[in-house]
Write a structure and sequence with these properties.
This protein has 47 residues and is mainly alpha-helical. 62% of the residues lie in helices and 0% in strands.
């Protein structure tokens, strides 16, 4: 989702020049998915 709560579409990611807000929303979602996958509450508490 973009900052204004609209979904990111394939068309948004395929625009030239790039639509920076769509790309930033996609990168943010990918980083959050990776973080959730790799870091558990137990690892955080142990640190």
């Amino acid at each position: 989702m973009e900052s204004d709560d609209t979904p990111v579409t394939d068309a948004d990611l395929g625009q030239a020049p790039i639509k920076m807000s769509a790309h930033m929303a996609m990168v943010d979602a990918l980083m959050m998915a990776y973080t959730v996958e790799m870091i558990s509450i137990e690892k955080v508490v142990a640190s």
